[in-house]
Amino acid sequence: KMDDDDDIxxxxxxxxxxxxxxxLEQQQREGMKTSQGFNQYSIGSIEEDWQxxxxxxxxxxxxxxxKEAVLAAGKDGRIACVSAPSVYQxxxxxxxxxxxxxxxxxxxxxxxxxxxxxxYDYNHPLDLPENLLPHSFDIVIADPPYLSxxxxxxxxxxxxxxxKGKILLCTGAVMEEQxxxxxxxxxxxxxxxxxxxxxxxxxxxxNYASGLD
Length: 213
Fold this sequence. Notes:
The structure is a single chain. With 213 residues, the protein is of the alpha/beta class. It has a single domain, classed as Vaccinia Virus protein VP39 (Rossmann fold). The chain contains 5 helices and 7 strands. It has a 7-stranded mixed β-sheet, with helices on both faces. The longest helix has 22 residues, at 13-34. It comes from Phainopepla nitens (Phainopepla). Keywords: Cytoplasm, Methyltransferase, Transferase. It catalyses: L-lysyl-[protein] + 3 S-adenosyl-L-methionine = N(6),N(6),N(6)-trimethyl-L-lysyl-[protein] + 3 S-adenosyl-L-homocysteine + 3 H(+). It is found in: Cytoplasm.
């Protein structure tokens, strides 16, 4: 007869150590969030929620797109981020920038940003607050939550309503034709990366001379 203890799965000391480290890191992260000096705008203050089909850009990509938006918007420009929270958070990190920004987002956790947060559901593309005037943004950055024609179509209505002209769209490479048809945007050379690799090839599209080529 085998020893009874053999039936109990034992975790190797290596696995245990890794687990402890993981929990410790998690606690530290939580601790950071509650500690005084926590910057609510830094990436990670709100973590991606896959159930809302949210996929954060890598830090580099978010910075690059934020920089492009600021340049495109110009001095005292207004930037709208439609379902692109990681770019919004990057823009917020640039304190004292001479631009203003709004985030249109389905995820109500972003309401911590106060006035700048606008609840947005792409199924109702023009269901926007009255004080959000048409064509009042120098550039609109949009990343429709789903790779579907319907989602792009509806988001496009919102983009066209908000923008004075400039559009920076991030979506799958498969949407190239649709994007050109709906918004007159062309694919850039710049390849956006996500913090986790997505299965679909992802690209940026613009309708103006950008720094992304």
